[in-house]
Every structure is written in C-alpha cells, then in structure tokens.
Amino acid sequence: MKTPFYYYDMALLDSTLAVLTEHAKQNDVAVHYALKANNHPRILQKIAARGMGADCVSGGEIAAALAAGVAPASIFFAGVGKRDEEILLALQSGIGAFVVESAAELFNIEQLARANGCIAPVLLRLNPEVDAHTHSHITTGLAENKFGLAPDDALALMPHLIQSDALSWRGLHFHIGSQIREAAVFEALCHKVNHLLSLFRTIGYSPEIVDLGGGLGINYAEPQSESIPNFAAYIQRFRMLIEANGARLHIEPGRSVVAQCGSLITQVLYIKEGKTKTFAIVDASMTDLVRPALYEAHHQIQLVRPDNWTIPASPVPIAMRPYDIVGPVCESSDVFERDLLMPELKRGDYLAIRSAGAYGAVMASSYNMRPLAESLFSDER
C-alpha cells in the first residue's frame, strides 16, 4: 500500500475490547464508545459486536453507529451545537438519550419532539468545575469551557423538564476532558459528582443514569509497555467512589480503546543536512496526523520493516543520531518530533508513528490538496 497509511493491529483491538467489556460487565457499568476518536467502519463493527453503545456528537456519527450495528437505545447524542436535522434523525432512530448542554438546546429538542409526536430522553450535562490537568484544548469541565450547564442552571430547568410532555429526564452527564493520566483527577470528579447527586436528590430528583464521560489517557511515550490501559482500576474507582443509589453508571471511552492499535506508516523521502539540524523529511504530514501540530503531542516513532509494521527494525541498540522528523506541508508546524534519536536513516526507510489509532485519521484534512491516507488492517494481510 502506498504511504502514508494507517495500520491497525486488529488482534490488539480485540484484546482491548475483551478486557474493557469484561471489567465493565463485572462492575455493571455501561460503555458507550466515543466515535470521535475513530469512526472507521471496520473499527465500529468490532465495537458493536461486543455489545457496546456509542457516544455520538453529530448526525454523521449516529448514522455510522447505526450502520455498524450499535443498538439505537445505547446511542447517546452529545455536543453543544446539534442541528435540527440531526435532532430529528436521533428522534426517528430512537436513541437512548440526548446529552443536553444548554437551556436553548433543551427547548429546541422539546419543540421538535412535540412536533413529531416523540418523547426525547434527556441527560443534563453538568459542568463540575474539575480541572482535568491536561492540554487546555481538551479540557472540558471548567466554567470557562463551552460545554455543559452550571449546576444551578440545570436545577432551574428541572421543573420544566419533569413536567414536559415531550421530554423524559433520564439522568446526569459529566465529561471533564481527555488524555487524563492522574487517578486523582477522576477521584476529584467522583467527589464533585457525589455532591451534585446529593443536591439533586435532596430536591427530589433521582437519576436513573449517571454518565461519567470519558477521558482515560494512554501511554504515548512507551506504548508497548501499556498497550491496553488499566480499565480495571479505572472502572472500579468509579464503582467504589460514586454514590449511585440505584442509578446505573455509564462511561464513554474513546482514545483508550483505539489509540494503541493504530500506527501511521510513513516513508523517508529525503535526509536534509542543515546547519544546525538534520531533517528526515517523510511523506506523512500534519494533514494525516495533526496532533503534534495542534496539541504539541508526542508520539513514539520507530524504524520498521515493510514485512512487519508492528516490530522495530533494530531491536538491538545501535548508533543513534538526532533527527527532526518533518512532513512536506508548507507549514513550519508540520513536525512530528524534534531532535529524536534514531538509527541512521536513509531515503526509502519506513517509520511507524505509534499510538495513532485515536484522533488520527478522523482529524485528517486535504490541505495542500493532499489525498487522505488509506487504512490497512492486520487481518487483511
């Protein structure tokens, strides 16, 4: 296959899904995969076959989840800017819940549901004011963020929501950010959720669903040492700390499910000896994987052989030298890594950019009129 392309280790994806679903089942926690991380049909079909639900943020994602075989009742529709046609699609499909993020959105969903003879199931997304200690671009649980309702605003909506003939309140939703690696952050979320649950219950509002969102991070620096995240600790922490009182706990993992099974495979075009730097110019770019340019993210990069994309070409330590791994796009930010110690590189070498299964292909663009990278799956070889 012509480089650059995405390579997916489907055996690793299967193992990851098996571990996740087993721990979720043991703890009676419902799982909704966040399609924003990776929406390839092959990936979604694997996930749907495990009986997982879907966290969707657009009509396109709802359609993709349904096409993959996700049960409509296990689809939750989030996002601050739901268009009318997307809301109608969700209503007609019989999804499990709308995750409502503003009063204006709630009233619009109500109007559309009533006009179409439907009852819209609703989760109110609360902004818990918990700092995720992650990149500012992927922090979502603070008052300054566009997501969710302030608790007092949500409480003010409850009488109308409960009395509406076109709305059905199912519970509360929280999501504080992405790529969270500190257990203390999730513990802080649990304490804040318990406080808010107590506040709602004291007034007489008892949710049937408490959705804790996603956010579990992965090991980008050493993916081989942690190819499957510690789902047991993640899920058990919620089970132990959340005062559910009969409500069912839900989670929405995305990155932690698919990131480690994907690599972006690229080929070295040229080695350029600069005055102060040596550049390895590759055929992949920020149009294929924008995370380094957008978030200053770091991915492990390995020299690989074309007969095995999963194993480094030089497992035995050899002489190394620093390279800036850069793409061909006309932007100075088109850099995958700076001063990266690598074996001696030459034109035609293949590099694997690891942990690219999440927020890789889904965020690609055709800037500079570059074609989108294709995908290769390990079970197709």
From TrEMBL:
CDD domains: PLPDE_III_DapDC (cd06828). Residues 5-357 form the Orn/DAP/Arg decarboxylase 2 C-terminal domain. It comes from Porphyromonas loveana. The active site is at C330. Pathway: Amino-acid biosynthesis; L-lysine biosynthesis via DAP pathway; L-lysine from DL-2,6-diaminopimelate: step 1/1. Transmembrane segments: none annotated. One of its GO terms (biological process) is lysine biosynthetic process via diaminopimelate. The modification N6-(pyridoxal phosphate)lysine is found at K36. GO terms for molecular function: diaminopimelate decarboxylase activity. Keywords: Amino-acid biosynthesis, Decarboxylase, Lyase, Lysine biosynthesis, Pyridoxal phosphate. Residues 27-259 form the Orn/DAP/Arg decarboxylase 2 N-terminal domain. Belongs to the Orn/Lys/Arg decarboxylase class-II family. SUPFAM superfamilies: Alanine racemase C-terminal domain-like (SSF50621), PLP-binding barrel (SSF51419). This is Diaminopimelate decarboxylase. Pfam families: Orn_Arg_deC_N (PF02784), Orn_DAP_Arg_deC (PF00278). Gene3D superfamilies: Alanine racemase (3.20.20.10), Lyase, Ornithine Decarboxylase, Chain A, domain 1 (2.40.37.10). It catalyses: meso-2,6-diaminopimelate + H(+) = L-lysine + CO2. Its EC number is 4.1.1.20. It comes from the Bacteria. Its cofactor is pyridoxal 5'-phosphate.
